[in-house]
Amino acid sequence: MLRKLAVAMIILFALTVLMMIVGCEGDQGPEGAAGLQGPQGDPGPTELNIVAVIKVTEDLKAFDMGHFAMSIYNAPSIPHVRFNNEDLAPDDAAMFEEGRLSYKEVFGLVGNDSAFIDISYTMMDGNEGNASSAISLPTEFVAIDNNVVIGFGDDAEFEWEVSDGADAYWIGFSCFLFYTDTAGTAQYNSLEFDTVLAANDTTLQALTSTIFPDTTEVMQIDSFGGRCNIRAVTGPWLPGEYNNFTGDAFGIFVGTTDSRFIDIDIPRKIPEKAVVGEDIPSNKANIDELFNQRITELSQNRTR
Predict the structure, then answer these.
(1) Which residues contact 192 (CB under 8 A, 6 or more apart)?
(2) Long-range contacts, 55-61 (Cβ 8 Å, 24+)
(3) Continuous H helices in the chain
(4) What is d(CA 182, CA 220) in angstroms, rounded to the nearest whole number?
(5) Where are the domains of the chain?
């Protein structure tokens, strides 16, 4: 009897505890109202960021050509672009989703010609944006000597005429040297550099210590090729200078007028050997790349 009573009391105690647990969890209350989102602000205007270059150079057929290249960044819409009153279409409209567009074209321009850019576009607030820039290209000029022969181990000096309208001169230099050292081992040495001179400087001296390796290590010269290119420049070119656009854009519009390439040579101690894959035209590509790098640095180190 007592055993049955004890079992009944245990069951009753367990039921009581279970009811207490269930009873502690009440019905879920109603969910509070979500907070209201604040009003969306009006879209603001959008300024374009522009890097443009017009380069007048003499092509292989002796015609003056104006090579134009421009990149537009932060574009909210595809703009209407005109260069010297001629409509231009972007080369890469597919990249518009990234807000960047590029333009390339060739025009029949010569030194002292005017070059101007007009841009209109729809800003993010729906209003029309406009931007423009104009420059006058420096006048044509030539180097005093287009074939410079220097003795091995001598300094090289380059001199050119004044280009009216130039804000500065950009000089690119590239050369290569194959030689046999005093141990009889074939060696290769190359050099590329660029520099900017003020508009009143028309002479550049390249030291032999820069152009050549240690002359005491050279037994004979097997092959040498070099080129120097001088470009009269107008537009924002010095550090700290950037904007020469007006309106709803900021950026640089630079113009250059090139001299002919200066070929550089040195007397050989032995007849020149043919070297596959290495010739003077490769220097031109290297010099163009130096100039492109300089433009990139200008656009990245800008001040607003």
Answers:
(1) 172, 173, 174, 286, 287, 290
(2) 55/231, 55/255, 55/256, 55/258, 56/109, 56/110, 56/111, 56/113, 56/137, 56/140, 56/255, 56/256, 56/257, 56/258, 57/258, 58/258, 58/260
(3) 2-24, 208-211, 281-300
(4) 8
(5) 147-234+258-290
Residue of 72, 87, 79 lying closest to 130 (CA atoms): 79
CA torsion, points 237, 285, 208, 186, in degrees to nearest 10? 150
- Angle at the Cα of 54 (from 48 to 57), degrees rounded to 5? 165
271 has a pLDDT exceeding 60 = no
Q: What is the spatial distance between Cα 239 and Cα 196, in angstroms, rounded to a whole number?
A: 11
- Averaged pLDDT for residues 14-32: 46
Q: Which residue in the block uniquely carries the two structure tokens 């550099």?
A: 193
Highest mean pLDDT among 107-121, 174-188, 232-246, 261-275: 107-121
Q: How confident is the model at residue 275 (pLDDT cuts 50, 70, 90)?
A: very low
Vertex 269 angle, CA 263 and 271, to 5°: 75
Q: Looking at this protein, which amino acid is placed at residue 6?
A: A
Residue 281 burial (CB < 10 Å; 0-12/13-18/19+)?
Answer: exposed
Which of the listed ranges 212-221, 245-254, 277-286 does the model predict with the highest average pLDDT? 245-254
The residue type found at 246 is T
| CATH top class, domain 147-234+258-290 | mainly beta
**Secondary structure letter of residue 150 according to DSSP:** -
Provide the terminal-to-terminal Cα distance of the chain, rounded to the nearest Å: 99
pTM, rounded to two decimals:
0.74
Judge contact between 235 and 244, C-beta under 8 A.
Answer: yes
Nearest to 236 by CA among 249, 246, 251: 251
**Rounded CA separation 103/93 (Å):** 10
The secondary element (H helix, E strand) that includes residue 58 is strand 48-58
**How far is residue 92 CA from its own chain's centroid?**
17
Q: Between the CA of residue 111 and those of 116, 122, 137, 155, 200, what are the distances in Å?
A: 14, 34, 5, 31, 18
